[in-house]
Amino acid sequence: MVTALNLPSPDGPCDDPQARAREFITSSDLDGLTRALDIELVALTEILVPRGYRAEMGKFDAPAIHYNLAGSGRISVNGGPFHPLKPHLLIIVPPKTRFTIEVDGHGPVFRLIGQDCWKRDKEHKILRISVPDETGEVVQICGFFNASFGPTVGLFRDLAVPVLEQFEPNDKVDVKLREIMSEVLAEDIGTRAMTAALLKQVIIALIRRSIRSADSWAERFTILRDRQITRALADMVARPGAAHTVASLASLACLSRSAFMARFIAVLGHSPMAVLRDLRMRQAASDLQTASTSIEVIAHNAGYESRSSFVRAFKKAYGQDPTEYRAKRPESRLPARGVRWTRASAGCPPRREACAA
């Protein structure tokens, strides 16, 4: 089955029907990309905004997923126009972007929920923004996250405008997000894997909704802006150890070598071989963590003909050779998820606040 997206028109040297068929992004391509997508939850916030109040959060170097669990209000992203909030609205806020939530009260003036009202739970796992002794009209779960195919290809990294999608109760997105919150609070064995898997389900549901919609906004995703480049990337993600070259990838994309290079860099910001190297290193790192296979076999599976060239590339990527990397506990290699929330990191100017001391 071929999935058609409203993306840029083909522009390449392919004239025969079989070659033309390769210009479309297929369901198999998209399935492979979503399977290979790495998800990392960076921070989790619960936001409760009472009537007559406003909540503001400053720039943060990761995209954020907001899900409105309950209540009606409005949200503005990066100072833009306000959009109505209602239950089960999902919003992806781009990285480094401010947002404001307002809930109407009995007058035209909104009280700002000050940062003295930003409280972490006892274990400092979840940030809660609320006003003491006030009932939240709007209740949101907000998760800051990274979604990528290695360090060079991020799904939302270059998102310029917010994505808004209205879900329904039977979609059970709220259930998954509440499970994420429960997992973070429990911090049991496998919590990181569980939170990543749950959040990945939410993101896949969002991508599905976009692709099936007549008014698709899927082209806002970096990897879906150019269907011919996406075909090449999908093959690189699915088979990082294959003997890819710029020429073979350009042929797959139905483009000349020069057009392929220019468009690949324009979409992804890196050359094809740089992205391929990162994908190979990601596969090798995963194999070192989960398999007892020899270094030579891992190197071969990652597309390297010699152990020495693989070791050099791996050490450059991870700062240590594969044997040292394998010897360490997986937990010591994982990036820290915790975020220290401070007035400076929030980026909000001093103002008259509801919880100011």
Topology diagram in text:
Blueprint: H1 17-21, H2 27-36, E1 38-49, E2 53-57, E3 64-70, E4 73-77, E5 83-85, E6 89-93, E7 99-102, E8 111-112, E9 118-120, E10 127-129, E11 138-148, E12 163-166, H3 173-186, H4 191-212, H5 227-238, H6 246-252, H7 257-268, H8 272-290, H9 295-301, H10 307-318, H11 322-327, H12 330-333, H13 343-346
Parallel strand pairs: 1-10, 2-8
Antiparallel strand pairs: 1-11, 2-7, 3-6, 3-11, 4-5, 4-7, 6-12, 9-10
What are the main properties of this structure?
357 residues; alpha+beta; Arc Repressor Mutant, subunit A; Jelly Rolls; 2 domains; five-stranded mixed β-sheet; 13 helices; 38% helix; disordered N terminus
Q: What radius of gyration results from the CA coordinates?
A: 23 Å
Question: Which topology of the largest domain does CATH recognise?
Answer: Jelly Rolls
Query: What is the total number of structural domains?
Result: 2
Query: So how many helices?
Result: 13
CATH homologous superfamily title of the largest domain: Regulatory protein AraC
CATH architecture of the largest domain: Sandwich
β-sheet strand percentage: 15-25%
Fraction of residues in H or I helices? 25-40%
Structural class determined from secondary elements? alpha+beta
Q: Which regions contain 5 or more consecutive residues with pLDDT less than 50?
A: 1-10, 16-23, 331-352
| CATH domain class name of the largest domain | Mainly Beta
General form: globular
- Note the run of SSEs as H and E: HHEEEEEEEEEEEEHHHHHHHHHHH
Give a count of the beta strands, DSSP E runs of length 2 or more.
Answer: 12
